[in-house]
Specification:
The complex is a heterodimer of chains A (about 270) and B (about 725).
Chain A: E1 6-16, E2 24-29, E3 50-53, E4 73-76, E5 78-81, H1 82-90, H2 93-96, E6 101-105, H3 113-125, E7 129-134, H4 140-147, E8 152-156, H5 162-169, H6 174-182, E9 187-193, H7 201-211, E10 217-224, H8 245-257, E11 262-264, E12 267-268
Parallel strand pairs in A: 2-6, 6-7, 7-8, 8-9, 9-10, 10-11
Antiparallel strand pairs in A: 1-2, 1-5, 3-4, 11-12
Helix pairs in contact in A: 1-3, 7-8
Chain B: H1 3-25, H2 57-71, H3 91-94, H4 97-101, H5 108-113, E1 116-117, H6 130-151, H7 156-186, H8 190-206, H9 214-232, E2 236-239, H10 240-254, H11 259-272, E3 276-280, H12 292-304, E4 309-314, H13 320-333, E5 339-342, H14 343-346, H15 357-362, E6 364-365, E7 371-372, E8 385-387, H16 388-402, H17 408-440, H18 453-456, H19 460-463, E9 468-474, H20 476-492, H21 498-506, H22 511-522, H23 533-551, E10 559-564, H24 570-575, H25 606-615, E11 626-631, H26 640-653, E12 658-663, H27 666-674, E13 683-685, E14 690-692, H28 698-707, E15 709-710
Helix pairs in contact in B: 1-11, 2-7, 6-7, 7-8, 8-9, 9-11, 10-12, 11-12, 12-13, 13-26, 16-17, 17-23, 20-23, 25-26
The chains are: A alpha/beta (about 270), B alpha/beta (about 725).
Chain lengths: ~270, ~725
């Protein structure tokens, strides 16, 4: 009996219009190796299945142990095989067209690299466009194995200064910078912009100057922080605020002046 | 003033009219129709026929039509280049004359039992062949009537009625000619004077002669649209681009027309009436029919950006630039037009008896959900409906009360039996209609542009070559999800029993434990989830419905064609049905058309709904439309247009027949729902038709809001 590779999946979203080019299926891996203070997907941080609780949905039927159907308690995380996930992704293959496909997101996909590489390989065998959303805090070997089956890398760089990176994400950015420089696949570099943390022209300018030197860079994207995660029912997050439009325009300008093609939330800026 | 600037003024006037109409009539949960408000003091009193207190028959209808046209206000707007509008119509005064003359009491109990819209006495809902009218003009039609009468003297009354009808139309045009002359006396602006002169000359020419120019052809068509509305509310248009192309080419070659003027003329025609028109499509050899006019019609609709009903027929060889343009306007103008039909799925029409491939190619989109072969078909489409949710509910109750085995097999046997009975009762009603409609309300206006009507002296309901009568099922999602919930929660998981579900339905899921059960059922595997139990049952139910309808014998060469479409009557049909095992409360709306229940998937994936609906197509050529309202959360420059086009292409390639689509901004929709006056020009495709959101009742606005899918939420 052969062992099937399984991955811990938080969710699979079909018909996604926002996770890369075209119409896509997005596979959210569960578990992350960073602890971003503003994380908007806190349910994907832990590598274990966990129960989310939304007290507002409870109807107080007293039947918790017999199963919850109100949505007050919801399980996040299930083990799935490569075949299961591929099967789900191929349901929409007809819609992918020339640029759509599958995006592996998270959580952090590189943390389950064995599964993700097997999944990407399977998807490429089926001639599906593949993309990954990653923090690139991984070993070079993992990256090389993934890139073999990837068409597009969407990677985050939150702070250029490693100490600040460590302060707000729990890890320094040395691996990330090294991996970005070593990429061989087309790259969209992104920075989630959080007020009072990294929303300065100096910070964004430093990242942009680094970005324009990257050999495979397609564009540099600024993503204004949104507080969606605060309603997701796992623990309490430290509250941060979203930068306003004027601030985003200013940051985009600073990045453009470094020579980067800049997008703000997917939209070409300037 | 440029034509484009004048179009903007027409748009502003249109919005004023909309609000006057709302003030006059209250909420309007129907197509906008392009009507104008009636002046204060206007009234019409119909003349009864014989000793009856109402009018009927060929002469009764002809005389009243003529009297109404002679009374109806004229409409000339010096900003326009075409004239005419309508505000009143004869159907307002007919008052159920069919059932008074030809009662069908014996059918009524079962029609009520199964929630059947019988279609008995329904008017219009077929399509004219406008080529016949453009070739002859009104004078030519009078000559044709005379020639046919000479050959067929026993049908004297029919011909007299048709003659009265045409002469009334000509008089109606004459009154407009007088009005234009009056306006000319006071007009001083040179460019307006020029167009008023053109308008005058055009109408003098088309009152009896066949149209020769592009402008004349558009004015002639507009007259026909207006008078056919007034007679029977007909809204079936034509393949505008193909029909008008040779006029356009000829005038361009003569130097008498440029694209800006042609666009303004087309915009004026779209403003006059919201008739359903088709663009593009293929010919019998599979060649693309897109031409320069296809683009100009889209541009005309874009200039106005009002309530219009244009359908782009997609097929494998469609001009990709044209399709892109159509999707671009859908995406950027955000007023619910155009919509899209699909050749691959629609060509299944050839499966019906007597239908050729050429018929299927010529069968164009001319109604909310429906298609018709111009000039040849009498389909009664969108008039006849069976409430499948009611049949399901009845079958379930019967099983539970019988003391017999409680199982899905038993339930489906009963559903099958009742469905067969419902289709049989519906067929009897259609036979009754086909036998008697000619004596109640012959289609005196549309008959003029149908094959063999004048030649034989017969109403189209009698002599149509193709009597492929459509029957739409209602509530597919409600039935499929009910069966899926029972299979998952009762049969597979054994979390509950048929008895517990039945008892909860009887008290509409009362109490906390009732609500718990309702949520348990509601969170079972839904139709359009993608490979779910709901999808499985939707396929089974749709196939059963399609076969039952298509195999039902009719008579006189007629046959029945299945589809799934509720129109916007989900509220009406829902009120007939108690609580259902999909977790739906008693009396709540049933599912819309072929659409799933709202919340069918957590991610609301557009791809899942598109695939689910493509798979349940009845495949006899009548549509099971995909109704979509969504916020892509993307701009055009972010690739939104390409994504919407890809979604459409794939659904159509999978066999989808019709996509009624609204691309909206969620915030706009929600604000407009709260305070409609904030968005007076927001147009939505309610079902097959478009309407101003602000004129819809709160219930109808809620329907649109409930169906809304936001990609941002996904």
């Amino acid at each position: 009996m052969s062992l099937k590779i399984t991955g811990m999946i938080a969710d699979i979203q079909r018909g996604s219009l926002h996770d890369g080019p075209g119409i896509r299926t997005t596979v959210f891996m569960k578990g992350c190796n960073l602890r971003c203070a503003w994380c908007h997907n806190p349910e994907t941080v832990s590598f274990e299945p966990e129960e989310l609780f939304y007290p507002g949905r409870c109807i107080h039927c007293g039947g918790c142990e017999r199963g919850c159907f109100s949505g007050a308690r919801a399980l996040c995380g299930r083990l799935m095989t490569v075949e299961d996930v591929t099967g789900e992704a191929l349901k929409d293959q007809d819609y992918y067209g020339i640029d759509g496909g599958v995006t592996i997101s998270g959580g952090e996909p590189t943390c389950q690299s064995g599964f993700v590489v097997a999944l990407l390989r399977k998807l490429k065998e089926a001639k599906v466009h593949t993309a990954i959303e990653t923090n690139l805090h991984c070993s070079p070997e993992v990256l090389v194995r993934m890139e073999e089956h990837l068409d597009l890398v969407m990677a985050d760089l939150k702070f250029f200064d490693s100490a600040r990176h460590r302060q707000f994400t729990g890890v320094g950015n040395e691996h990330i910078l090294r991996n970005l420089a070593a990429l061989t696949r087309p790259l969209i570099l992104r920075t989630p912009v959080v007020s009072s943390l990294n929303d300065t022209e100096e910070e964004i300018g430093a990242i942009a100057r680094f970005a324009v030197q990257l050999p495979t860079l397609l564009s540099y994207e600024l993503l204004p922080y949104h507080p969606l995660g605060l309603s997701k029912g796992v623990g309490a997050q430290e509250r941060f605020s979203a930068p306003d439009k004027d601030r985003m325009d200013l940051l985009a300008k600073a990045a453009r002046e470094c020579g980067a093609q800049v997008r703000v939330r997917g939209r070409v800026s300037g | 003033m440029t034509y484009r600037e004048r179009a903007a003024l027409l748009r502003a006037r249109k919005i004023e009219h909309t609000f006057e109409k709302k003030k006059e009539n209250g909420y309007m949960d129907v197509d906008d129709y392009g009507t104008v408000p009636l002046p204060e003091g206007y009234s019409f009193t119909p003349m009864p026929t014989g000793d009856k207190p109402f009018f009927f028959g060929a002469m009764g209808n002809a005389l009243n039509f003529a009297a109404l046209l002679d009374t109806h206000p004229v409409y000339v707007d010096e900003m326009e280049i075409l004239c005419g509008r309508w505000g009143d119509m004869l159907p307002h005064y007919r008052g159920g004359s069919f059932e008074k003359l030809y009662p069908y009491d014996s059918l009524e109990p079962e029609q009520a039992l199964y929630g059947i819209n019988s279609g008995i006495g329904a008017d219009a809902h077929f399509a004219c062949d406008y080529r016949l009218g453009l070739a002859l003009g009104f004078g030519g039609l009078l000559s044709k009537i005379e020639a046919c009468r000479t050959r067929n003297p026993v049908k004297a009354e029919f011909y007299l009625a048709e003659e009265i009808t045409v002469k009334a139309i000509i008089r109606f045009i004459d009154r407009h000619i007088q009005e234009i002359r009056c306006r000319l006396k006071d007009e001083t602006r040179p460019e307006i004077l020029n167009t008023l002169h053109e308008m005058l000359e055009t109408n003098i020419n088309v009152r009896t002669l066949p149209p020769c120019t592009f402008l004349e052809a558009c004015q002639w068509l507009s007259w026909f649209f207006i008078v056919s509305r007034i007679y029977d509310r007909d809204g079936a248009g034509c393949s505008l681009d193909a029909l008008l192309f040779h006029y356009y080419v000829r005038d361009k070659e003569k130097g008498a027309l440029d694209d800006e003027k042609a666009t303004f003329i087309l915009a004026n025609m779209l403003l006059i009436d919201t008739h359903y028109h088709q663009l593009s499509g293929e010919d019998a050899q599979g060649r693309d029919q897109t031409n320069r006019l296809s683009y100009l019609v889209l541009d005309a609709a874009h200039w106005l950006n009002i309530s219009v009903n244009l359908t782009v027929r997609m097929h494998p060889k469609i001009d990709p630039a044209f399709l892109r343009q159509a999707v671009t306007y859908l995406f950027t103008d955000r007023n619910g037009w155009p919509r899209f039909s699909g050749s691959k799925g629609l060509m299944h029409y050839v499966r019906n008896p007597g239908v050729t491939r050429e018929d299927a190619v010529r069968r164009i989109a001319v109604g909310c959900n429906w298609m018709a072969v111009p000039g040849a078909e009498y389909p009664m489409n969108d008039c006849v409906k069976i409430n499948a949710a009611k049949i399901f509910s009845l079958s379930f109750d019967e099983m539970m009360q019988s003391g017999e085995e409680q199982s899905l097999d038993n339930l489906m046997k009963r559903f099958d039996t009742h469905l067969r009975r419902a289709v049989d009762v519906t067929a009897q009603g259609i036979r009754w209609h086909l036998a008697n409609q000619q004596y109640v309300m012959p289609e005196l206006v549309m008959n003029l542009l149908m094959e063999d009507t004048l030649e034989r002296g017969e109403d189209i309901s009698v002599c149509a070559r193709l009597k492929t009568v459509g029957i739409d099922g209602v509530g597919l999602g409600t039935v499929a999800d009910s069966l899926a919930a029972l299979e998952q929660r009762v049969v597979l998981e054994k979390r509950t029993t048929f008895r517990e579900v039945y008892e909860a339905l009887q008290c509409d899921f009362a109490g906390t434990q009732g609500e718990r059960l309702r949520l348990m059922l509601k969170t079972s595997q839904r139709y359009c989830g993608g490979g779910t139990l709901g999808d499985k049952w939707a396929n089974i139910v749709s196939l059963l419905f399609a076969q039952t309808v298509a195999n039902q014998p009719l008579s006189d060469g007629a046959s029945l064609v299945p589809g799934w479409f509720s129109w916007s009557s989900t509220i009406h049909f829902g009120k007939m049905v108690g609580a259902t095992p999909d977790g739906r409360h008693a009396g709540a709306p049933v599912t819309h058309g072929a659409n799933p229940n709202p919340g069918f998937r957590k991610d609301g994936a557009l791809t899942a709904i598109a695939t689910g609906i493509a798979r349940i197509q009845t495949a006899y050529g009548n549509p099971c439309p995909l109704q979509l309202e969504f916020d892509p959360g993307l701009t055009a420059e972010e690739g939104g247009i390409e994504r919407v086009e890809q979604l459409l292409r794939t659904h159509i390639e999978q066999g989808g027949t019709l996509v009624n689509i609204n691309v909206l901004e969620k915030e706009t929709l929600m604000q407009a729902h709260k305070d409609p006056s904030l968005y007076p020009d927001l147009v939505v495709r309610v079902t097959g038709f478009t309407a101003y959101f602000a004129t819809l009742s709160p219930e109808f606005r809620q329907l649109v809001v409930d169906r809304f899918i936001s990609a941002e939420e996904a």
